[in-house]
Design goal:
Layout lengths: L2 H12 L4 E7 L6 H12 L2 E4 H15 L6 H10 L2 E4 L2 E4 L2 E2 L7 H11 L2 H15 L4 E5 L2 H5 L3 E8 L2 H14 L6 H17 L12 E4 L5 H14 L2
Parallel strand pairs: 1-6, 1-7, 2-6, 7-8
Antiparallel strand pairs: 3-4, 4-5
The protein binds 2'-deoxycytidine-5'-monophosphate (DC).
C-alpha cells in the first residue's frame, strides 16, 4: 500500500464518526425543554431532559438529608440512584417526581448539586448510556461540549435575560404563582452566573455548535429552524 493510501485510510478511521443526535444547550428559561420535546416529536426521535435528571438527584439528596461534603453517603446514594424518564414524566425509584422536581425548593437546591463532580460523572455516564444508540434530542448545559461531543447537530439556544425573564414571569402568572418581574430576572441572572462560572462542565457553546438567539422568535419558529438545520446537515 502506498503511504498516501495508508494515510487516507488512517484519516478515514480516525475521522470522528458523528452520532445522529441533536444537542440543545443554553441558559435557564430559554425554552430548551419545550423546544427539544417538539423537535423530537417532529423527527420521531426520543427526548432526554438532562436538567430533570439533575433536579431528581437534588431531590433524592435533599430527602436523604445528605450533605454534598459527606462523600461516603453521597457515593452510597449515587450507587443506588434509580432515575427513569418515561415520556414527559420523571421517576425516582419508581415514584413520579415530575411536579416535585419543578418546585421552588428543588430549583434552589439543584445548583450546587449540578456543580458536584461526582454527581456529574454518574449522570453523564447514564446520559451517554441512554443516548449512544442515536435518534435522541438531548437538552442541557454540556451536551454538545462534554456528553455527546460527536452529536451531528449542536444548537446553542440563547435569548436575552429580559426576554427569558418575561416568559417565566408570564408562566408563573398563568400558574397562579405570580412573582415580581425583578425577582424573576434576578433569579435567572443568578442561575446564569452559576452555570457559566462553575469549574466543571460550565455552560458554553461548543466550537461546532450553531447559536440561535430566540429573543424575537416564537416557539414554532425555533422548532422549524432547528428541524430545517438538522435536515440540511444530517
Ligand atoms: O434546565 P434545568 O433548569 O431543568 O436544569 C436544572 C439544573 O441542572 C440547573 O442548575 C442546570 C443544571 N444542568 C446541568 O448542569 N447540566 C445539564 N446537562 C443540565 C442541567
Amino acid at each position: 500500500m502506498e503511504w498516501r493510501d495508508a494515510a487516507h485510510q488512517n484519516d478515514a478511521m480516525t475521522a470522528a464518526p458523528t452520532l445522529p443526535l441533536i444537542a440543545i444547550d443554553g441558559p435557564s428559561g430559554v425554552g430548551k425543554s419545550t423546544t427539544a420535546r417538539r423537535v423530537a416529536a417532529r423527527l420521531d426521535w426520543q427526548y432526554l431532559d438532562t436538567g430533570a435528571m439533575y433536579r431528581a438527584t437534588a431531590l433524592a439528596i435533599h430527602r436523604a438529608g445528605i450533605s454534598l461534603d459527606d462523600r461516603p453517603s453521597l457515593e452510597r446514594l449515587l450507587s443506588m440512584l434509580n432515575l427513569a424518564q418515561k415520556g414527559e414524566r420523571m421517576y425516582l425509584a419508581g415514584e413520579d417526581v415530575s411536579e416535585a422536581i419543578r418546585s421552588h425548593e428543588v430549583t434552589q437546591r439543584v445548583t450546587p448539586v449540578s456543580a458536584n463532580a461526582r454527581v456529574r460523572e454518574v449522570l453523564v455516564d447514564q446520559q451517554r448510556h441512554i443516548g449512544s444508540s442515536g435518534r435522541w434530542v438531548v437538552d442541557g448545559r454540556d451536551i454538545g461540549t462534554v456528553v455527546f461531543p460527536k452529536a451531528c447537530c449542536k444548537i446553542f439556544l440563547t435569548a436575552s435575560a429580559e426576554s427569558r425573564a418575561k416568559r417565566r414571569f408570564l408562566e408563573l402568572q398563568a400558574k397562579g404563582q405570580p412573582q415580581a418581574f425583578e425577582a424573576v430576572l434576578e433569579d435567572l441572572q443568578r442561575r446564569d452566573l452559576a452555570d457559566r462560572s462553575r469549574a466543571i462542565a460550565p455552560l458554553l457553546k461548543a466550537a461546532d455548535a450553531v447559536e440561535l438567539d430566540s429573543s424575537d422568535m416564537s416557539l414554532d419558529q425555533v422548532v422549524d429552524w432547528i428541524v430545517a438545520r438538522h435536515q440540511a446537515h444530517p
